[in-house]
Amino acid sequence: MTTARFSGAPLRGSPGPSGPDVGRRELGDWATRELAAAGCVSARAEADWLLEEAVDEESLRAMVARRVAGEPLQYVIGWAPFGPLRLAVGPGVFVPRPETEGLADRAATRLRSRPEPAEGSGEPQGGAPVDREGSGEPQGGAPVDREGSGEPQGGAPVDREGSGGPRGGAPVRRVAVDVCTGSGAIACFLAAEVPGARVLATELDPGALAWARRNADRYGVELLAGDLDEPLPAALAGRVDVLCANVPYVPSGAIATLPTDVRDHEPRLALDGGPDGLDVLRRLVARAGHWLAPGGGLLCEIGEDQAATGVALLTAAGLVEVAVHPDLVGRDRILEGTHP
């Protein structure tokens, strides 16, 4: 995190001594009170986070006002942690959750375990590419450049020439696909954790694509615009080692029960999974066998009460070794199966 730069003056209208430590402490206490009054459960922790990100008192007050108004904390500061990564996020994109790190970690382990393909024909490029023009951000896990507003620009698909994907005659690489990528969290995690793998991600929502582009550019992910598997190159059929997704899985009728900052600010397209929450999962499972290589794995995030139905869906689709794994607090969260 960056260190806040305060003048050391106490809060406006407050008596008492000044100095960097006093000014910072008083600002932190003020922010904590404001956030607690607005109903933030972890007001002190959030205040400390905002203090670290704010460049001065004015920006801190503006950030606190946004959070008090209900914006997700990650939107306010412009980024979200995901494992070792720091991902750009903001209005229009689903915020990566810690629970999804478990899925990403399992997917990375599975991708690493796949045998290295022999050198051969390589796979041609294809799909509906999204703008991959260099953003000037540092590679790897360096902090996101948040100069100015931090809002992503553009959104029109353009040519992705030179993205690093293998072409004819190049060695074939392990392949992972992340659909419904949102901010690109899972895809970027896989690219960072399994160097040399070819990682593709798809996203339908233009608002989310704008943020995913910033993250994908940093980690060498091939970002494609479209619904689920539709934009994937045809040449990948039967060659994907890991297919993963955090699909929308909240039942439509339960959207109203979500926390206010989620319900009112995060995109409904990333949340609403239809009447029972499983509409998108059914579509993905039906297509998984087309893309997966023999022994390749499908990993999806599910709601804690969807395990039995999820297992039945994967089994009916012909996947084997179907299993459900818990999240950080022991709730059923990850559905996994293997293409025979």
What does this structure look like?
By secondary structure, the chain is an alpha/beta fold. The chain is built from 10 helices and 9 strands. The strands form 2 sheets. The protein has a 7-stranded mixed beta sheet, sandwiched between helices.
The CATH architecture name of the largest domain reads: 3-Layer(aba) Sandwich
Sheet with the most strands: spatial strand order: 5-4-3-6-7-9-8
Domains counted in the coordinates: how many?
A: 2
What string, H for helix and E for strand, traces the elements in order?
HHHHEEHEHEHEEHHEHEE
The number of helical runs is: 10
| Helix-strand makeup class | alpha/beta
Q: Give the overall shape, derived from the CA principal axes.
A: globular
Distance between the termini: 45 Å
Question: How is the secondary structure organized here?
Answer:
Blueprint: H1 20-37, H2 43-53, H3 57-68, H4 73-77, E1 79-82, E2 85-88, H5 98-113, E3 175-179, H6 185-193, E4 198-203, H7 206-219, E5 222-225, E6 240-245, H8 260-263, H9 279-291, E7 292-301, H10 307-316, E8 320-326, E9 332-338
Parallel strand pairs: 3-4, 3-6, 4-5, 6-7
Antiparallel strand pairs: 1-2, 7-9, 8-9
Helix pairs in contact: 1-2, 1-3, 5-6, 6-7
